[in-house]
Specification:
The complex is a heterodimer.
Chain A lengths: L1 E5 L3 E6 L5 H19 L11 E7 L4 E8 L5 E7 L7 H20 L12 H14 L1
Antiparallel strand pairs in A: 1-2, 1-5, 3-4, 4-5
Helix pairs in contact in A: 2-3
Chain B lengths: L1 H21 L5 H27 L9 H17 L5 E4 L5 E5 L23 H13 L2 E11 L2 E10 L3
Antiparallel strand pairs in B: 1-2, 2-4, 3-4
Helix pairs in contact in B: 1-2, 2-4
The chains are: A alpha+beta, B alpha+beta.
Chain lengths: 135, 163
């Protein structure tokens, strides 16, 4: 399972378990294209662009990739095992909300320069809690 | 209630401090430009953070005009407790935001006496607008002018990054 905060280059990546991280990097990058496609479908005032990108098959496992875009064009991507069917839509939505709230706090921190990699411990701990809950 | 006054006083002190630090330089013209850019840069960073917080629960904006309207209504009211009084545009990226009673200028006397000093107090707010727009994906140059206190106009000139 992995999570990524993107501004067209990654600001933050975290995964559990930590082996196979490169695979997640790749998954996340390819999913960015789909996100771009979704947000340029203008004319709809949707609250957030959410994608359920099923069907990204790998030889060993299936993954589900979820995306979320803020008004400031920052993208959040979550990758979960398909075998983990206990995660429902609502839960994913609330995970993204928590992420967004946490990210807003990072943004408002005067010691943080927008565009830098995120090094906030508070952000780290929120992510850890979420990933533990989801697994 | 005291919140507004707190920020107004802080802002006045920030302007005074920035100018005092530059006063030791001999080159007057350069001093002015440096001070204005310092204040603008401060406003920029603040604008970025604030817009992130305020747009957290908003739907995505349909177009630039929608975005400017949000700036004039919600953003301005949250920061300065009132909306922008007048928004004009040439539909080609230039906008004029007119505030007839700008919160940071109300403490000045309304005559012509301090008209020359007024731009110093607008630099931070120009940066604020620029930072907000930049975080929403719009690069811009924001200028401001005062002709009659306490009313002033901010003029963002947009160059959209989205396309």
């Amino acid at each position: 399972q992995s999570l990524c905060v993107h501004l067209n280059y990654p600001l933050y990546i975290r995964s559990v378990p930590t082996q196979g991280e490169l695979k997640f990097h790749y998954t996340v990058h390819t999913s960015l294209d789909v996100v771009e496609e979704k947000i340029s479908g203008v004319g709809k005032a949707l609250a957030d662009q959410r994608e359920l990108y099923l069907g990204l098959l790998y030889p060993t496992e299936d993954y589900k990739v979820y995306g979320y875009v803020t008004n400031s064009k920052v993208k959040f991507v979550i990758v979960v095992d398909s075998s983990n069917t206990s995660l429902r839509d609502n839960e994913i939505r609330s995970m993204f909300r928590k992420l967004h709230n946490s990210f807003t706090d990072v943004m408002c921190n005067p010691f943080y320069n927008p565009g830098d990699p995120i090094q906030s411990k508070a952000f780290d701990s929120i992510v850890s809690t979420m990933m533990v809950q989801a697994c | 209630m005291a919140d507004d006054a707190l920020f107004e006083f802080l802002h006045m002190e920030i302007v005074a401090l920035v100018y005092k630090e530059q006063a030791t330089r001999e080159d007057i013209d350069k001093e002015r430009v440096t001070c204005v850019s310092t204040l603008d840069a401060m406003g920029f960073r603040v604008g970025q953070g604030m817009i992130e917080r305020f747009t957290k629960d908003c739907p995505t904006f349909k177009d630039d005009l929608d975005l400017m309207k949000f700036l004039c209504k919600d953003f301005w009211s949250t920061i300065f407790k009132k909306q922008i009084d007048n928004l004009r545009t040439n539909h080609q990226g230039t906008y004029v935001l007119q505030d007839n009673k700008f919160a940071l200028l109300t403490q000045f006397s309304s005559g012509k006496q301090y008209l020359e000093e007024a731009p110093k107090y607008l630099a931070f707010s120009c940066g604020l607008i620029r930072g907000a727009l930049s975080n929403l994906g719009l690069e811009s140059v924001v200028t401001a002018e005062v002709s009659l206190m306490p009313s002033c106009k901010f003029m963002p000139n947009l160059k959209s990054l989205i396309n």
